[in-house]
């Protein structure tokens, strides 16, 4: 919730985590609580590449130089590294050799704990000097790890090199990032909530220039993505609109008033009122952003209304023979109440937005305050500053100028037409009510028929293609499929600026950066549509095209996210297939998917406890042996260049390709005898969900879907509600997340603001005319 205080929430979560920590396994790293915006997207991406260095070396440069310098920038929440290949000491175990040397993974772990250690040994003191004693027991190189003595058996020393080999390699091999086909690493900047992103981007560029002087010549550091360029372009566009609006307002005032003296007074009132609006922004701590500048654009037209009315009234009195001073005083007094009531009415329309909750209230709060403040200041200017200018500048015209003579017939015709219609409607009062009721009916019809959405898509020169792999897919499968998608993207969009391909485990994404919309023939939306058709034939997995929402959304989320909540997992497993079948058949959605899947292949180890007890093997020994052999478990740390890195051990990939390979692993019983795993366990093939999800403490599954062409977000939410009503039983609850949740909250909030504005306007007009 946007109204929740971050500090209070973080404290509450820490208290709950500390209570729950006692129930966690002993060898689990203690959980940490960090404050971050769940919707925060990286605003900049800086790539680090070299033709002479490996990804391991580039990761070191990115972490020690780029990340360290950028994360100290004010209002930066975090700096992450994509495509990193962090150093690690990989210990590759050979189960055949371990069996031959009667060595187990648990013995290797025990040897590391025993031999890879450095403790302070105290000190020695002489008469004048005290010396500290340090025992150098840490291993630093692959050679030292290969020479690690595991045990002595029958006067034979077994070293780690006898049962495996150590090498300095990447901590995570299933991680790659390429830009235009070139492997590299990158750092991404994530801002704090409410931070000024333009200031952060400017400081990043300054520090990059400083870094380039310290980096080796072969290392190239450059900005690959900068989302603030859209913010800058939007602000520049709004600024231009302000200038155009000001000029158009002045021209229109002159065309209707047809006198430069009369025109100059409301013209001067515009900047005076806007200065007051900027002062309100300064006092409220607002920044110059798209929405606050949009308020200024709207204010240009609003602030001049009162000034025109006052000037016109004063000028009419001067034309009737009054002196400019008397006409200014009397003219301002005469319409004082009308100007005040008009101002209060306008404020009643805009100011209720301040009290809205959710994203709409947060987005448009500055807008409503700036507009309301500008209108209030403009009424003050119209009733004080404008009459003063009128008393000094206006004079009675002795004769009409040429513009008035030429345009007078036109304005007289307008007045006559208005007079005729006015007389007609006064004479036919019974027509007013039917017309009013008919207007209400049309409003309702149009409101229901016009598609509803959070915000229209904006051409931001960026398209993403995300891949969704089947459960159980390997990294190689993901890599090959994502590469094929990347090649399709390259062939379909030759005008692209860059193609960023990111693969992490079983996640794949292709991010396409396009030239500015003025430099290409096709729009971002047209390119996205063609890509959707182009990736559809690739049926080995699923690829879906995404365009960034105008107002942002849950990171990596589809426009529609529908949460199913059930009391048990059994209920979800029973109803999800029928629910998804209806969703996939509906014409409203495309690329629908659910995060909770019960299809992840799983090999279950069934321990024969009686036999294990007879052979002297515990369940814990079996579990730890498999964990150390197969999971890439961290077995300790080593140091290199003053930094700490992990020691990871596991059996070679080639020797653990099938479930049957598990049975060839050996372990020792309580007598030291080697026991093959095949004698203790049975293997069962099954499927299970890889992750479990909870929403408001209920078991949950989130259905994500894109919108089919021609359907809006509001229509799609209604369709999803219909499907849920028809397919789920009464034990289920549903909720919305991401952009769809923001849309529903905003819709109800805006309706509340609309009705509140109508009530306030009615009350103000009733007070003004002293009649309901």
CATH superfamily of the largest domain: Multidrug efflux transporter AcrB transmembrane domain
Quantity of strands, as a count:
27
Shape: elongated
State the CATH class of the largest domain.
Mainly Alpha
- Summed up, the helix count is 23
Ends apart, CA distance between termini: 40 Å
Summarize the structure in words:
- With 772 residues, the chain is α+β, with helices and mostly antiparallel strands.
- The chain has 5 domains: 35 residues; 107 residues, Alpha-Beta Plaits (2-Layer Sandwich); 163 residues, Multidrug efflux transporter AcrB TolC docking domain, DN and DC subdomains; 166 residues, Up-down Bundle (Multidrug efflux transporter AcrB transmembrane fold); 87 residues, Multidrug efflux transporter AcrB pore domain (Alpha-Beta Plaits, 2-Layer Sandwich), CATH 3.30.70.1430.
- The protein is 49% helix and 21% strand.
- The chain has 23 helices and 27 strands.
- The strands form 8 sheets. It has a 6-stranded antiparallel β-sheet with strand order 10-9-14-15-13-16, covered by helices on one side. Strands 17, 18, 25, 26 and 27 form a 5-stranded antiparallel β-sheet that branches. Strands 2-11-1-12 form a 4-stranded antiparallel β-sheet.
- A hairpin with a 2-residue loop joins strand 9 and strand 10.
- Helix 9 packs antiparallel against helix 10, helix 11 runs antiparallel to helix 14 and helix 17 crosses helix 18.
- The longest helix has 32 residues.
- It is elongated, with a radius of gyration of 36 Å.
- The protein starts with 5 loop residues before the first helix and ends with a helix.
- 29% of the residues are buried.
- The model has no long low-confidence stretch (mean pLDDT 86).
């Amino acid at each position: 919730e946007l109204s929740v205080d971050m500090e209070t929430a973080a404290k509450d979560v820490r208290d709950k985590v500390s209570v729950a920590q006692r129930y966690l396994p002993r060898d689990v790293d203690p959980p940490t609580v960090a404050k971050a915006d769940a919707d925060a997207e990286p605003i900049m991406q800086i790539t680090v590449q070299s033709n002479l260095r490996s990804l391991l070396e580039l990761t070191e440069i990115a972490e020690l130089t780029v990340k360290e310098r950028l994360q100290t920038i004010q209002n930066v929440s975090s700096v992450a590294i994509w495509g990193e290949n962090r150093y690690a000491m990989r210990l590759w175990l050979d189960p055949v050799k371990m069996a031959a040397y009667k060595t187990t993974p648990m013995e290797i772990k025990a040897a590391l704990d025993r031999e890879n250690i450095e403790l302070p040994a105290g000190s020695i003191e002489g008469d004048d000097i005290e010396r500290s004693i340090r025992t150098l027991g840490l291993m630093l190189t692959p050679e030292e790890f290969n020479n690690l003595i595991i045990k002595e058996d029958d006067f034979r020393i077994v070293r780690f090199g006898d049962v495996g080999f150590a090498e300095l390699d990447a901590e995570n091999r299933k991680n790659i990032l390429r830009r235009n086909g070139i492997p590299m690493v990158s750092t991404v900047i994530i801002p704090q909530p409410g931070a000024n992103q333009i200031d952060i981007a400017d400081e990043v560029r300054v520090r990059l220039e400083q870094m380039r002087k310290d980096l080796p010549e072969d290392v190239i550091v450059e900005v690959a993505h900068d989302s603030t360029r859209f913010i800058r372009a939007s602000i520049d566009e709004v600024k231009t609109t302000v200038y155009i609006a000001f000029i158009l307002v002045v021209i229109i005032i002159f065309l209707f008033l047809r006198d430069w003296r009369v025109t100059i007074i409301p013209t001067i009132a515009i900047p005076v009122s806007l200065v007051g609006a900027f002062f309100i922004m300064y006092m409220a701590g607002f920044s110059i952003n798209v929405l606050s500048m949009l308020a200024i654009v709207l204010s240009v037209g609003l602030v001049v209304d009162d000034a025109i009315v006052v000037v016109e009234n004063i000028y009419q009195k001067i034309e009737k023979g009054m002196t400019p001073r008397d006409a200014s005083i009397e003219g301002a007094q005469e319409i004082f109440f009308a100007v005040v009531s008009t101002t209060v009415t306008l404020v009643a329309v805009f100011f209720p937005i301040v009290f809205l909750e959710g994203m709409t209230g947060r987005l448009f709060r500055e807008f409503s305050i700036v507009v309301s403040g500008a209108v209030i200041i403009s009424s003050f200017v119209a009733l004080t500053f404008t009459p003063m200018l009128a008393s000094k500048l206006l004079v009675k015209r002795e004769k009409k100028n040429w513009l008035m003579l030429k345009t007078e017939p036109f304005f007289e015709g307008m007045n006559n037409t208005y007079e005729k219609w006015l007389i007609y409607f006064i004479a036919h009062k019974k027509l007013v009510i039917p017309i009013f009721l008919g207007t209400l009916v049309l409003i309702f019809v149009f409101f229901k028929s016009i598609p509803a959405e959070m915000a229209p898509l904006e051409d931001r020169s960026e398209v993403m293609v995300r891949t969704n792999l089947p459960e159980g897919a390997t990294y190689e499968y993901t890599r090959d499929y994502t590469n094929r998608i990347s090649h399709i993207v390259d062939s379909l969009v030759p005008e692209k600026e860059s193609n960023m391909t990111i693969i992490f485990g079983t996640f794949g994404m292709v991010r396409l950066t396009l030239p500015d919309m003025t430099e290409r023939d096709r729009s971002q939306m047209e390119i996205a549509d063609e890509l959707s058709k182009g990736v559809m034939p690739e049926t080995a997995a699923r690829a879906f095209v995404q365009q960034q929402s105008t107002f942002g959304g849950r990171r990596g989320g589809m426009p529609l996210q529908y949460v199913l909540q059930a009391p048990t997992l059994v209920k979800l497993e029973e109803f999800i297939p029928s629910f998804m079948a209806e969703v996939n058949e509906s014409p409203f959605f495309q690329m629908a998917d659910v995060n909770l899947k019960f299809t992840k292949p799983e090999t279950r180890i069934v321990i024969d406890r009686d036999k294990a007890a007879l052979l002297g093997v515990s369940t814990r020994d079996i579990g730890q042996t498999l964990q150390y052999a197969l999971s890439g478990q961290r077995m300790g740390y080593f140091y290199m260049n003053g930094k700490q890195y992990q020691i990871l051990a596991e059996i070679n990939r080639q020797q653990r390709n099938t479930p049957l390979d598990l049975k060839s692993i050996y372990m020792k019983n309580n007598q030291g005898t080697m026991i093959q795993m095949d004698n203790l366990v049975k293997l069962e093939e099954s499927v299970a969900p890889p992750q479990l999800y909870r929403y408001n403490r209920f078991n949950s599954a989130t259905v994500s879907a894109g919108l089919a062409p021609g359907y809006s977000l509001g229509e799609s939410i209604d369709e999803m509600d219909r499907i849920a009503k028809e397919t789920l039983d009464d034990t289920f609850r549903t909720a919305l997340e991401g952009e769809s949740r923001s849309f529903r909250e905003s819709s109800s909030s805006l309706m509340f603001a609309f009705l509140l504005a109508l009530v306030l306007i009615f009350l103000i007009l009733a007070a003004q005319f002293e009649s309901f």
